[in-house]
Q: What sequence folds into this?
């Protein structure tokens, strides 16, 4: 350094280059690697949410699913309302709807959505899905099958990552109840008034989510919100409440939310895999020892689902805390 440089006046604060640490994001796991189990263990225990790539679901199917969603929500209202949810069926009804969940005067979830019942097969009735978009029913059927396959594979890796038999979690939840919800968040200059979904954790076992390139999904990590950057062709894996109970808290459910964009509409497709309503869910006995006692009370899944929808839990974010053994 020369004396002249040393003498130059310091740059004003605004002109200095700010070295920003790279923003943290959820881990990305390559499912085609020889053994993804250690990475899954780490991602589940540290993040409760992660991206998977090379997951075996054709990228063209992910793209088609997103395009169908956009086409549906951009269709004339009279087309969409032919598939409106039946209000007498309550908040879990299949079909096209808008406001989904409010509690104590607070809107927790406000968006346009289309919910499809897809599994077990006796719940799947494609005649209840839009007819006016070519291939809609075929694509949703294929998407449902692919998501089921991936969810089962992930539940098996997650079980093995805790030294449980591969089928442990799948057996514990019984027949997988799968629902696919396509959500559409129109742009809004006042995001505080806009369609969005507030912080929550999902009810069932595992959620597989895809989003478009707008972004807006965030996960809570160490009390900080972290953006889930859109990653084309990847699928976001979100651990849900029943997995936290079965793993006795080794893996927590992910608290997440979705924000709206001021000038772009956003679309996401969430595929939920839940236990059947008659299943009793409790911590896996092989994970319980004298030093590591059961941390959660047993719950009938139907009772938990009811508390999730009707807010009998202690707060909107982790309804599961009501089941903690003190
Ligand atoms: O739209 C999103 O990205 C999140 C949706 C979500 O978390 C949910 O439907 O449970
Ligand atoms: Fe969610």
A:
């Amino acid at each position: 350094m020369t004396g002249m440089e040393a003498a130059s006046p310091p740059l004003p604060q605004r002109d200095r280059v700010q070295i920003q640490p790279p923003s943290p994001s959820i881990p990305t796991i390559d499912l085609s690697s020889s053994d993804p189990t250690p990475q899954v263990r780490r991602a589940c225990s540290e993040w409760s949410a992660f991206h998977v790539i090379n997951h075996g679901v054709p990228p063209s199917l992910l793209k088609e699913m997103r395009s169908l969603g956009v086409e549906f929500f951009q269709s004339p209202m009279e087309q969409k309302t032919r598939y409106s949810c039946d209000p007498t069926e309550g908040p879990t009804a299949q079909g096209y709807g808008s406001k989904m969940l409010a509690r104590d005067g607070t809107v927790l979830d406000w968006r346009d959505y289309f919910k499809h019942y897809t599994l077990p097969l006796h719940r799947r009735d494609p005649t209840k899905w839009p007819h006016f978009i070519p291939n809609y029913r075929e694509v949703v059927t294929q998407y449902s099958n692919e998501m089921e396959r991936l969810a089962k594979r992930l539940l098996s890796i997650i079980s093995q990552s805790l030294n449980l038999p591969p089928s442990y979690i799948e057996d514990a939840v019984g027949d997988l109840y799968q629902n696919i919800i396509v959500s559409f968040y129109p742009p809004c200059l006042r995001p505080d008034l806009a369609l969005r979904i507030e912080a929550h954790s999902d009810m069932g076992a595992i959620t597989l989510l895809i989003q478009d390139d707008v972004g807006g999904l965030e996960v809570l990590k160490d009390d900080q919100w972290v953006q889930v950057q859109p990653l084309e062709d990847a699928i976001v894996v979100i651990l849900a409440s029943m997995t936290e109970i079965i793993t006795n808290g080794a893996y927590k459910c992910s608290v997440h939310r979705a924000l709206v964009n001021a000038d772009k509409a956003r679309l996401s497709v969430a595929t939920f895999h839940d236990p059947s309503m008659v299943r009793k869910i409790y911590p896996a006995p092989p994970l319980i020892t004298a030093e590591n006692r059961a941390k959660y009370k047993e719950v009938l899944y139907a009772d938990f689902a009811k508390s999730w929808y009707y807010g009998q839990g202690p707060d909107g974010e982790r309804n599961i805390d009501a089941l903690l053994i003190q």
Notes: The pocket of fe (ii) ion (ligand 2) is lined by residues 200, 202, 256 (CB under 6 Å). Residues 70 and 267 are 7 Å apart (CA to CA). Helices lie at 3-7, 37-46, 59-73, 77-80, 136-161, 168-173, 241-246, 301-310.
